[in-house]
Design a protein that fits this description.
The structure holds 2 protein chains of 2 kinds. By secondary structure, chain A is mostly helical. Helices cover about 85% and strands about 0% of the residues of chain A. Chain A contains 10 helices and no strands. Chain A has helices at about 5-15, 20-40, 45-65, 70-75, 80-85, 90-105, 105-120, 125-150, 160-185, 190-220. The relative contact order of chain A is 0.15. Chain B is of the alpha/beta class. Chain B is globular and about 50 Å long. Classes of the chains: A mainly alpha, B alpha/beta.
């Protein structure tokens, strides 16, 4: 079996043994997004206009919340060290792990997002724009975020530091993702944004695993 | 004559040359030279904080030394060379996933080696007297049982060099006998062991194979 598959399968197995941690970011995502319709005036079409952006920001925050635990347990129980000295490729192993992590956070977030769109009264033809954007954007968020998680793995409370390191790097994804919605709200084409998000995804898919393994080797001494 | 030389070279599995390590401002050790042949067991001794674990981590490539070289059969040992496929490091931390069962932990180790053999997993658990708790999650096992499970990993994969950090800590008499027998079997098959223990290992059957190496005395 390939290194990617072994680590992907193992991460899945581990995540479903620990369902509490699995559900946390999803519940967080839904609650954050739902707070806005309650706190903003409902009569104007304000919600409709900003709903997509709010869902995007909630997705970013939920991803961020899930990052801290990504490598920490492995570091604590010594399995990360074993992965570092193993003859199998650390880069591919980490890619498998991070992508498994994405299926449990980013992918599920994207799948729930159409339901949330209803609470913002977002028109049906824009729901797919948001959905496609999240589907293309969240893997980049997880991959880039994992670099921050790898850099802070040895720190006891690295959560805030991850946010400081990673949130600025999320801005391009956020601009294109949320920009897509504004464009489509004005009746414009969104193809260029889709291409941009796909390009960011391709770049993070190829470069982030290298950065993750380099960060892990540098931090674990 | 010629045969002797080649045998001698090949039997020198691990060589450390002039190894030094500092931690912060503290010099842990300096100028360590060490050689481990196949079929040998080297017992690193030294008080707490003398750099035993650091030395093991340098050998594995988890830490870098300040100077000196780690050689595997005469060539530099790094994680992308043959060395990584020939050595296994058993650290203080057991590197077991507490959510997974004993057998699932072993199965993962075996999958990474590329071969899946369920019988070998059962055999390994049986040898370490853990067969009755094969399907229990590791978090339900006692400390000693977890330690034995960590040793069962050595049975499912074949590595020539075992690097064991304090292997006898927290283990009962029965477990100690099991582990010693495991080590002796490995040495009989011309494997090598590098282990640390803070005390003298006098009263064990392993003694016949042991070579002691005192870090403090060897450090120049």
């Amino acid at each position: 079996m390939s290194t990617f598959k072994i680590y992907f399968a193992r991460e899945w197995q581990l995540m479903f043994r620990n369902t509490g941690a699995l559900i946390q970011p999803l519940v967080f995502f839904i609650i954050i997004a739902l707070l806005f319709p309650f706190s903003l005036p409902a009569e104007s079409n304000l919600l409709q206009q900003i709903g997509g952006g709010i869902i995007w920001v909630s997705a970013v925050l939920a991803t961020l919340l899930s990052l801290e635990s990504m490598f920490h347990a492995d570091y604590q129980d010594g399995t990360l060290e074993q992965t570092l000295i193993h003859h199998r490729s650390l880069t591919l192993a980490m890619l498998g792990k991070v992508m498994a992590h994405w299926t449990a956070t980013g992918l599920v977030l994207s799948l729930i997002s159409p339901v949330l769109c209803v609470t913002f009264n977002i028109p049906a033809d824009q729901i797919w724009v948001l959905f496609v954007g999240l589907l293309l954007g969240t893997p980049s968020l997880t991959l880039i975020g994992a670099i921050g998680a790898a850099l802070t793995v040895t720190l006891r409370r690295g959560g805030v530091l991850i946010a400081v390191i990673i949130l600025p790097l999320y801005i391009p994804v956020l601009i294109f993702g949320a920009g897509m919605l504004t464009q489509s709200y004005q009746g414009l084409e969104v193809t260029s944004q889709i291409y941009a998000l796909a390009a960011i995804f391709a770049m993070s898919l190829t470069l982030a695993p290298l950065a993750i393994s380099a960060s892990l080797r540098a931090t674990i001494k | 004559m010629n045969r002797d030389i080649t045998n001698d070279d090949r039997s020198k599995l691990l060589t450390l040359e002039n190894l030094s390590c500092t931690q912060g401002e503290n010099l842990l050790f300096q100028g360590l030279d060490l050689c481990l042949r196949s079929g040998e067991c080297l017992h690193l001794r030294g008080p707490n904080g003398s750099g035993k674990t650091s030395l093991l981590r340098i050998v594995c490539g988890l830490m870098s030394s300040d100077s000196g070289k780690v050689l595997w059969q005469g060539r530099p040992a790094t994680s992308d060379t043959e060395f990584a496929t020939q050595c296994f490091y058993l650290a203080h931390k057991d590197a077991l996933k507490s959510e997974l069962s004993a057998i699932e932990n072993l199965r993962f180790i075996q999958a990474l080696e590329g071969n899946i053999d369920e019988d070998a997993l059962d055999d390994a658990l049986d040898k370490m007297r853990l067969l009755s708790c094969a399907d229990l999650p590791v978090q339900a096992l006692s400390f000693g049982q977890r330690r034995r499970l960590a040793f069962a990993k050595l049975l499912v994969i074949e590595r020539r060099l075992w690097i064991l950090d304090e292997p006898f800590t927290g283990i009962d008499k029965e477990g100690k006998v099991l582990i010693e027998q495991l080590c002796i079997d490995h040495l009989e098959k011309l494997g090598s062991i590098l282990l640390t223990h803070h005390q003298k290992l006098d009263s064990t059957p392993l003694k016949a194979y042991l070579q002691e190496y005192d870090i403090l005395k060897a450090s120049k």
